[in-house]
UniProtKB/TrEMBL annotation:
<protein>
    <recommendedName>
        <fullName>Type 1 periplasmic binding fold superfamily protein</fullName>
    </recommendedName>
</protein>
Amino acid sequence: MKTINTINPSTMRSNAIKVLGLLAATAVFTSCDNDDDISAENEEEVITTVEYTLTSTTDATNVVVFTSVDADGEGPLAPVETVTGTLMASTVYDGSIKFLNELESPAEDITVEVAEEADEHEVFYIDSITDLTVAKVDTDANGNSLGLDTTFTTGAAGTGTLTIVLRHEPLKPNDGTLLNAGGETDVQVEFDLVVQ
């Protein structure tokens, strides 16, 4: 007589559910690991120092430096802003900006990373003097504005403020305003502006 083995359908269903459960658990653990790696990669840089240097295109001795130093990074101390040199009326300046993390020793130059990831960054310059213009002269690989290098043109004498903002992952291209750019602010500083 021939013996026929039969498989109980409820046992098959139970085993299938166990296997599917193990596969699902593996997928969850794997995706958690990947998320952790991504967040570590995109961790925001600490920027303690912003230094914006303007050099007159007609008088190399006319140099103006705007410096903001936040000695404790994201700590409770407010940044200290200083301006050295004199901005002259009706003058064109070549501008360059640096971003540093001086909590590191030696200081880490974040400007290098911004330049390397130009498509993910943009520097914005907002001033409150009507006849002063700041034009970005450098671009990312797609031809969109970056703003590490600028042309800074003064008009009549006056006073106001200059705000500098570094944005991470802004919308590109944009209309040049923070409102339209989106993204996240890596650092924002404001200086008193005097044109003589």
